[in-house]
Design brief:
By secondary structure, this protein is α+β, with helices and mostly antiparallel strands. Helix content is 31%, strand content 19%. It is built from 29 helices and 39 strands. β1 and β2 form a beta hairpin. InterPro entries: Beta-lactam-related (IPR001466), Beta-lactam/transpept-like (IPR012338), Glutamate_decarboxylase (IPR010107), Peptidase_S12_Pab87-rel_C (IPR021860), PyrdxlP-dep_de-COase (IPR002129), PyrdxlP-dep_Trfase (IPR015424), PyrdxlP-dep_Trfase_major (IPR015421). Its cofactor is pyridoxal 5'-phosphate.
Amino acid sequence: MSKPRGVENSELDGDIQPELEDEIYLSGSFAFMPGLLEQWRVPGASITVVDGDRTESEGFGMAELGLTFFDSWTLCYAGDTSHAHVAALLALMIESGHYTDDKLRPLSWQTPICCLIREDFVLRDPWATDHTTLENIMHHQTGIARHSNAYMRYTRPDGFLGSRRVVTPRDIVRKLRYLPMAEDSGPFYRYSNLMFATLSHVIEKLTGQSLGDALRIGLWQPLRMTNTYLRLQDALDSGRNVARGYFWDTKKGEYIALPRITTEDLTGSGAVITSAEDLAKWIRFWLREEAPLSPAAHQTLRLGQIVYGDGGDAVPYGMPRLHAKGWRMLSYRGHRFWSHHGRVDAFGALVTFSPDLDFGVAVMGNTAFTSSAVAAIATLHLVEEKLGVPPAERKDWATKFQLIMQDVENYVRGGLDTLYPNRRAHPTLPPSVPLSKYAGVYYNQGYGYIMLTVVRTSDTESPANSQPQLSADLPDSRFHVKGDLVHVSGEEWFMYVDSKDAPILTMHDFAAVKFEIGRNGKAMSMGIEWRNRDLVDGWIWVITTYIRTSNRLPRPVSFMAHSGKRGAPRANSNGAGQGDFGSVYGSRYAVSELPSDDIPDAPMPPGTAYRMIKDELSLDNNPQLNLASFVSTYMEKEAEQLMTEAMSKNFIDYEEYPQTAEIHSRCARMIGSLFHAPKETSIGTSTVGSSEAIMLAVLAMKRRWKQQREAEGKPTDKPNLVMSSAVQVCWEKAARYFEIEEKYVNCTRARFVIDPKQAVDLCDENTIGIVAILGTTYTGAYEDVKAISDLLVKHESNVPIHVDAASGGFVAPFVRPELEWDFRVEKVVSINTSGHKYGLVYPGVGWVVWRSSEYLPSDLVFSINYLGADQTSFTLNFSKGASQVIGQYYQLIRLGKTGYRDIMRNLTEIADYLTNALREIGFVILSETSGRGLPLVAFRFPGKDEGEAEDADFDEFALALYLRARGWVVPAYTMAPETDKMKMMRIVVREDFSRSRCDLLIKDMKLCCHHLEQDSQQFIKRMEEHAQEHSVAKRKTNDPLNNPQHEHKVRSVGPYPSHGELTDTEQRVKHSLQGKTGKSHAVC
C-alpha cells in the first residue's frame, strides 16, 4: 500500500513523529532536556508546554531502564501537586450546595473541620481543634508542626509483632491528637501533608466515595483526564507504562531501582499518578477557568492570602510570595505565576502556569530531588523563552540548584555543631549503660514504632566518626525513615536522618536525641527532637515496648507460637510460615506445579490460591485494550458491590427471592418499552447473553410455523430461516441445533447488509422467519428492517421478522430515535439484545422480548413447582445467579435515558473521530458514521485500484499482530462468505474507550504501519504462518464439528457464481470468522 499520510520515516525513542504545523514549542525547543537529565542523573522525564491554543508534550530518557522509554503518556507520581486536585474538588463540592456540616450549615471554606469529622479530628490545642477550617488547611495555617516523619504507610493494630495494614485517611487523622503543635503556634505558615490527608478523610466522609472515585467523577472525567489515577494498581491496570523510581549511587556509579510504591496512604497529600498529556489538560483547565468549576471558584482558589518563605530561595520569584489553595502564587519580571512542586520517594514534579500569559509548563521525572531540580531549571528556561529574556540577563539555574544541594549537605554535616555548639568546652561523659541496653523497640502513638540496633559507623552512610553507635529504623513510616545515632555526652545523642530506601535530599536532616534509663539498667524511653531544617517539630518521647538481648529481632513466628494465642502461624513442610509473616513465594507452592488434571488431596491456603491463580491470569490481555469485543469492561463500584452481594442468589428461585424476580420483571418491561413493545401484550425474559435469546426466538418461530403447518395438514420437515451471510455465528448454531435450513443473502464488496428484496424473494411456505440485524458483526451497519417489513406486507406474506439487536438495541434508541426498526415495524414479532454489550453490564445477561404471547407458543412455557412454589419458565437455562439482572437494573435507573443518551452519543463521536483519523492515515473505511451504525470502525488497507502498491508484502493480519505487540487487540478477519477475499479490521468503541485512549491507539497505529513498511516480506510471512498454525489448526484437532457425521447441507444465494451444495466443513473453511481466523466468538 502507499505510505499512510501523517507517518514519517524518522523515529525518536521508538515513537512515530507526526507532521506538525508551525508551533512555538516543537521538539527542538526541548533539545536541552537530554543533557539536563544526564547532568542531574535522572533516568527519564516528561515535559508539557501549553502556550495559548498550542500544546507540546514529550518524553525523554527511560521510564524503566532497559525496558521502556519515557514518553508523554508515561504515568508518573505527581507528589504534592495533588493538593490542587483536592482543592478543586472541594471547591466543586462547595459550589454544588449539596453538602453540610453536622449542624446542617452549607459547606464553605470557613467550615471548621471538627464540624465535619468531629470524632476523628482532635489536635493538642483545643482552640485549634474547634477553629481550624478547610481554608486554614489549604493555606497550611493550622498551627500544627510539619511532622513529616510521623506520616505512616502502615499501622499495626495488634502490636509490633502483629500483622500490619496500609493506613487509611482516618488512621492518619486520628494520630494528629498525639502530635505537638508548632512552637510558634498561631496564624503562621507551616506546610503539612498530614492535614491534606485530613481533607481526604473529609471528602470521603461527605461524599461516601473514595477520594479516587470522587476525583475521577467530579474532575478528571469532565476534563477528559482519563490517564490520571490515585491508586497504583489502577495505573498498572490501565495498560500504560508506569515509571519506576531510581536514585544515583555515587559509590557504585549506577542507578539503583526502587519498587513502585503504593499510594493508598498518600491520598490527597500526594497520591496522584498522571502523564504529561493529562497535565496539559490540567494546566489548560486552570488557564481558561474551565468547567466544572465556575470562574468565581477558580479565582477563589488562585487568591494568594498567606505569605510564606523568607526570599532566600535561589529561584527568582519576587516577594511577597503567597500561598493560595493548592498553589503558590509567585511573580517573575512583573508576571504572576501559580506553581507547586511534588516530591515522593524517587519522583519529582513541578506544575506552573500563568493565566496572564495563557502559558503553563509541567515536568515530571523519576528521581527525587534531582528530578525537582530538572523540573525547575527546565520551567525557568521555558518561562524566560516565553518572556523573551535576553541571554545576558538569564541566570545559571543549574549552578544555583547545585549550590542548594551543597548547602543542604553542609547544613547536615554541621548539625552536630548547630545542636551542641559548646560540647567541646565540657568533659564528655560516657553512656550510662552499655549500648546493647539501648537496643529495642520503642513506641509513640503519633510516630508509631522505632527499632534501635547497635551498629558500627562503617555499616552506615552518615558523616559520623567510626565509634560504635545506634541505628534507628521507622519501619512503618511513609518514607521508611532511618537514623544513625552518634553519642555526644551522657544520655545526649545526635542523629543523622535520611530515608532507608534511597537518599532523598528533602529527608536529609538531623535531630537531637535523649534517653531515660530505668532502675533495671535499661533504656525505658527515648526523646527525639524532630525538625525540618530550621523549623522544629518538637520533642517526641517514645517508650520501650521490648528490649533486645542481642542485635537480632525476635522471630515473630516463634514469639507468637509461645504466646498461647489461637491461630498462631505454623511452619509448613519447607519452613515457610503460612500466617501473616509467611510469603507465598517462600512456600512450597511457588516451586510446585499447579493442579491441572486431578483435584489435589490437600487444601491450599486461600491467599496462596488467590495469588497463584492471579499470577496465571496476568497472562491474559488487558480487557480495556481488547477492542475486538462488544462486551462491557467497566461498571461503577456501586454496581459491582450490588452484583457481588447478589452472587449467591439463585435467580430461578422466585419464592425465596421475590424482590429479585420483581426487579427482573421491571427490567423486561423497561427494555420492552424502549423497543416500543405494546405494554398490554408484550412478554420478555432475561437470558445468558443474546445467544440464548436467539435460541429461544428461533424455537418460538419454528414452533409457531410448525403449529400453523400442522393445522393446514402440511409437512413440517423442511423449515428454513432467511438471513444475511453477515450473521453472528450463534445463528448458524441455532439452525444446526434445531435442524433448520439456512438461506443466506450474501454480502458483496459494495453491500455488507441484507438486501431486502433478495430476502423476501427467498421466502417460501417453509420459511419460519427473516432475521434482520441491528448492527452487523462485521461493519456495525443497521439492516433496513422497515424495508423488509414493507415488502412482506406488499406480498401479503405471513413470514415474521426477528431483529437481532444484540449490539444496537441500546444504541439506536438513543442516537437515532427516529429510526423505525423495532415493534413500530408491523412484521417485527421478537427482538433480542445483549445487556452485557451496550446495555453496559458485565458479561452474562441478554434479553428477548416478544410482541405478544401469540408469538411465544404456550408449549415452550413451562409451569413448574420449584422448592414448593409454582412458577413459569421459558428459558433454556435453569439455575443461574441474579447478579447480572441486578446489574442491569442498576444501570437502567442509575443512568436513565439521559445517561444512556450521553454515553452513546459520546461513543458515536469518538467513533467518528477515529474514523477520520484512520482515513487520514490512508485506510479505506467500511463502517457507517454519524450514528448510522454501531459506534465502531471497520477498515482495511486500500486495494490495488485504490492506491495499493503492487509489491505490498503485508496485510491486515500483520497489522493486527503488530498492534497486539503494543497491547491492543484489534481483530483482522475476512468478510462474510462469498466476499471472504476482502480482508478487514474492526475497532469497537466501548464505554471505557475515551478520547485520550483513542489518541493512544491512533499513535500506535501509525507506529505499527511505519514498522510494517520496514519489515521484510519473509518475516511477515513467518509471523502469519505461525499465527495461522496456532489459531486454526490446533483448534480443529479436537473439534467435534470436524467429524464427517455432522456434515450439514447449506444453500447460498446471491450475485456470485453458485458453488453448488457445500458440506459443513467446506462452509466452515469459507466462513471468514470460523475458518479464516479461528476467532468466531472473540471477534463477535
